[in-house]
Design brief:
This protein has 2 domains: 145 residues, 2-Layer Sandwich (Fructose-1,6-Bisphosphatase, Chain A, domain 1), CATH 3.30.540.10; 109 residues, 3-Layer(aba) Sandwich (D-Maltodextrin-Binding Protein, domain 2), CATH 3.40.190.80. The chain has 7 helices and 14 strands.
């Protein structure tokens, strides 16, 4: 990344986000496949662990020590989200909690930062693979020292696509299953790994050609959306408009396949 071309405060924010994500990831790596408390939230499949809360406390406390006036929206309720500050941090301290609780190695720390409602910085850290994805508005998306670029796939039949299912899937009729079945028949392959932030980073890296999901939250997608855009991809809602501020409807692609996957969303 050409750090010299970045605005000073963007660089400060990026460095802080990288440091906090790395510290939280170290906790996850240390506690992985050990004994820890697991609880449920909105549904029996919506889990939170003591590791989620420990990581969130570390991030929020570290952030408040350095930038106490910034707004913070964090998954487990820490921090203070308010309208007075131009800077807003959106934190998922452990994206992929169900995976983590089961010892399935697909999870990460996700930190996105907005300035006056515009995505400015994104950091996603996979502690097991030690992969640090990061981006800043106008400075590209990166994996370590490698600048990321989306895939060049133009035929949906050759696409590898990812999705996920909401925590109300056992009860809701709007369960994404019809879209899943339709894309499964049309694409080369489909994956459901359980981490929205990593799925978005994989679109940015060209590992996936497209990704969609519904009923997410802003902290799930804030960092990953910027990653995709800065890598040359496109993010939208399911009809091609802006991603909602709440992050609850997202389609991300290499741009070339966007119209094709939006057509699949009409089922």
């Amino acid at each position: 990344m050409q750090r010299s071309a970045m605005q000073a405060e963007d660089l400060e924010v990026l460095d802080l986000a990288v440091d906090l994500a790395s510290q939280a990831g170290a906790i996850q790596r240390q506690r992985y496949e050990t004994d820890f408390d697991v609880h449920t939230k909105s549904a029996s499949i919506d889990l939170v662990t003591e590791v989620d809360r420990e990581c969130e406390a570390l991030i929020v406390e570290g952030l408040q020590a350095v930038r106490p006036d910034d707004a913070v929206l964090a998954e487990e309720g820490s921090g203070r989200d308010h309208d007075e500050s131009p800077w807003r941090w959106l934190i998922d301290p452990l994206d992929g909690t169900t995976n983590y609780a089961h010892g399935f190695p697909r999870f990460c720390v996700s930190i996105g930062v907005e300035y006056r409602g515009t995505r400015r910085v994104g950091v996603v850290y996979d502690p097991l693979l030690d992969e640090l994805f990061y981006s800043a508005r106008g400075a590209g998306a990166w994996l370590g020292e490698r600048k990321l670029s989306v895939s060049t796939t133009v035929d949906f039949g050759e696409a590898l696509v990812a999705t996920g299912f909401a925590y109300d899937v056992h009860k809701s009729q709007d369960d994404n299953l019809a879209r899943f079945a339709q894309v499964l028949k049309a694409a080369r392959g489909i994956r459901r790994d359980g981490s929205a932030a990593l799925d978005l980073c994989y679109v940015a890296a060209g590992r996936l050609d497209a990704y969609w999901e519904f009923k997410l939250h802003a902290w799930d997608v804030a960092a990953g959306c910027l990653m995709v855009e800065e890598a040359g991809g496109r993010v939208s809602n399911s009809v091609g408009g802006p991603v909602p501020a709440a992050g609850d409807e997202i389609v991300a692609t290499n741009s070339l396949l966007h119209a094709a996957i939006l057509a699949q969303m009409k089922t």
